[in-house]
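Cytochrome P450, Solanum bulbocastanum. Tokens?
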Amino acid sequence: MNILRIEQRGSRLNGAYGGEDLVDVFLRIKENDQLQFPITNDHIKAVILDMFTAGTETSSTTIIWALS
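Tokens:
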């Protein structure tokens, strides 16, 4: 995980962006141990990768179906 992102998170939450995004929520859960199982940076990376691949796979499948 990007160290710069983690360090800047606190100053950005109340700044121009106006709130938490998905990565901020994952980092907050990780820091506060709010889950029954430990969450690591690798878990956070895996969930974000799954989201990106799921979105691109759906789009490409739709385009292939429409062309055929």
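The chain is about 70% helix and 0% strand.
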